[in-house]
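Worked example 2:
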Amino acid sequence: MQTHKTVMLQEAVAALEIKPAATIVDATFGSAGHANAIVKNLAKGGVFVGIDADKTALNKDKLEDSQATVHLVNDNFSHITDVLETLKIESVDGILADLGWRMEQFSDSGKGFSFQNDEPLYMTFGEPDDYPFTVEDILNEWEEHVIADILYGYANERFARRIAKAVIRERKIARIATTKQLVEVVEGALPRAALHRKTHPATKTFQALRIAVNDELTVLETFIAQAFEALNVGGKLAIITFHSIEDRIVKHTFRELKQAGVAQLTPKKPISPSREEIIENPRARSAKLRVLTKQ
């Protein structure tokens, strides 16, 4: 299994300008790459809060020894207000969210995130039973035009209508329940030239369906609003995005807060990974780090 490489590790942690007694939230604990770099900067009196919707990610053994108080919480980061209230933390000095993926989520989740393995089509960050619907439900029960809108709206899939039509055709024959079935439907719907893209032909379809099931864009908007409220004056909110739809939300929301006179963009432009990092970790190439400071 490939080892997960944390993207923009030094840049993200440096952007938080952590003081030894600070209270810092890692809203996407994941593989604890950023988390370990954060706790190294905290001393006695400092507080670290790690949040992750995937309970399998939360393990204190991932963290190096620290004098700081450590809390690990299994929840969606859009519930950051409730998380902090439960911990009796009134406000924080910095919040980091890395919207990327742990390798483990792709390789052995059992939820169908990757087209490399044949798994059930859930794609839920948390337990499937806790969600109103899964990808399997979308594919087998939702209307054709809705499926097409999801593929185009959440991933800019240019063949959205062809794929949606193929889904409807296939589900009349047999329920679409596994990643292998979905890949076959997508590949069968695309023109031959589209099967030879640099990326796998099903990449955008999987991305769009995952976003829909987890309501990722609404969740991101809710998270930003709650995270900003939780910050002390001078506190930092740092978010790493990996695709244009997410980045657009972060960019516009940060800009609105700046225009309202309650925050500054620090720095004004997004931070991109270094050339050296992209060579070492190609998945970093689309990453953008945006940082906001509360006034």
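The chain is about 40% helix and 15% strand. The first strand starts at residue 23 and ends at 26.
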